[in-house]
Fold this sequence. Notes:
Elements: H1 3-13, E1 26-29, E2 38-42, H2 47-55, E3 60-63, H3 80-90, E4 94-97, H4 100-115, E5 121-129, E6 132-147, H5 148-158, E7 165-167, E8 173-183, H6 188-193, E9 198-202, H7 206-214, E10 218-221, H8 224-228, H9 230-242, E11 247-250
Parallel strand pairs: 2-3, 2-11, 3-4, 8-9, 9-10
Antiparallel strand pairs: 1-4, 5-6, 6-8, 7-10
Amino acid sequence: MICRELIAKMEQDFPPEYALEWDNTGLLAGRLGKTIKNIYIALDATDEVIEEAIEQKADLLITHHPLIISPLKKVTDEEFIPRRLVQMIQNDISYYAMHTNYDVLRMGELAGQKLGFQNPAVLNTTCSEEGRERGIGEVAELAEAMTLERYCEHVKKSFALDTVRVFGDPGKEVKRVAVSPGSGKHMTEAALSKKADVLITGDIGHHEGIDAAARDMAIIDAGHYGMEYIFIEDIKMYIERKFPNMRVTTAEVHHPFRVV
């Protein structure tokens, strides 16, 4: 399938206009007229990911996080980020990012499903269509309350994690839960406004954590990668359903840091 046609079909389900204003989604490098037979999927376009995509003879690399956010003044092999673009272009790999449009249309829902949410609502609404709210994250009531400590174990099991960071009293009763995969530093107010007992997210700093706990909302920091890696398998299954003749390979789940 021609790259242009494949993107058009994908964007019927994940329109780029759902992305937040600051974001950079869509085809970021490569040829729209290229024939796509092999797709490689990862969370980030790291050096290792690009090398693996080349080894797999990928025609298209799809990532969640866009390699290009800030404007580039030049694209040469002497610069850190542009060097990756040069490498992809040299190997005729087209590169597509689906970031906050995916977050709005799928990521919160998927995370809620992992956690077993029933009858969830949108955590932070960014738009609405035909009376249905869309946005970042979800919030839901648990069938029965449990302690924060016990819910941490549930989060670890749901996302296959060894550890999480927690702000709040481990004996605190948790009944209303908010989830916002990725960087949640700016989601605490939304969670507080929805009267969440706990927010599950990533990239929480010291001050965000202690301030939320002081306002009687716990935070479970499951890590940025620790929650968003679910994008990889989800998009793999989506591509296989949407384009059954396409060969799809994925980056191995590999957390970018270790706790020692």
